[in-house]
Amino acid sequence: MFFWAGNFYAVKIALDSYGPMSVAALRFLLGAIVLLLVLYFQLGNQLFKLRFSKKDWWYLFLTSFSGIFVSMYLFNLGLKTTSAINGSLIVATGPSITAILSYVFLKIKINLLQSIAILISFIGVAIVLVNGSLSQLIQLQFAIGDIYILIMAAGFSLSQIIVSKHLTHIDTVTLNTITCSMGVFLFTLFAIPDFIATPIPVDLNFWLSILFMGLLGTGAAYSIFFYCVVELGATTSTLFLNLIPLFTVLLGFSFGEELKWAQFIGGIVTISGLLLFRYAKGKE
Predict the structure, then answer these.
(1) CA distance 165 to 106
(2) What is the pTM of this model?
(3) What is the number of domains present in the chain?
């Protein structure tokens, strides 16, 4: 969770030197290398014998396109104009968005307590989006960076729906290694103009942020999370995702970000809603 929280600040540092697409390409290149090494350690030479159907490859591509390519591009784009704290609180609504999309696409019912929890979490995010201003809410005046992050969260949730409906027979490490590798190809393809037009950064902070995001914030973080899912179960492991906004706030003091009262209140409301949602889901 600490590594994922660090991504919010590492991205902002990297974006000072390269564009959103280029930063994503470098990050996921390193992340894919780490995940491939983990997968090879897990499967050995069996890695080269993996076979999937044409439908599997199609859904793997859709998962990568929505959950990595589109989502991470919007994530980077959003953090150019919004704060890391805002971003982490908006991303935290992922479980609520996933529940809504599951109801729409998978016909998974949402009970009354879950509905209340989802509403509470979105009220918390609304407080963050309008910085506590009721007039901004009435006039629907939202910062463009926050909107990008919100759409990113929806795109990532959509990728989870695709996985739940079509790819449950593929283990998570294999699935994420393949989709991450596909994301590298897409990011690199679209980042070529930026790579050509922009001189190679020589700033040490840029390369340290890329190394952090690629090796720790992507490769190591996903690998550790998958291990915890196996050892602790998905429900317990995903509960710890609620710590990401907390770590983001704590890291913010080191990076000079101030915690605004609207972020504090909105964060408490959002996380309360998510915890209630977890409780309601566990009672099913």
Answers:
(1) 7
(2) 0.87
(3) 1
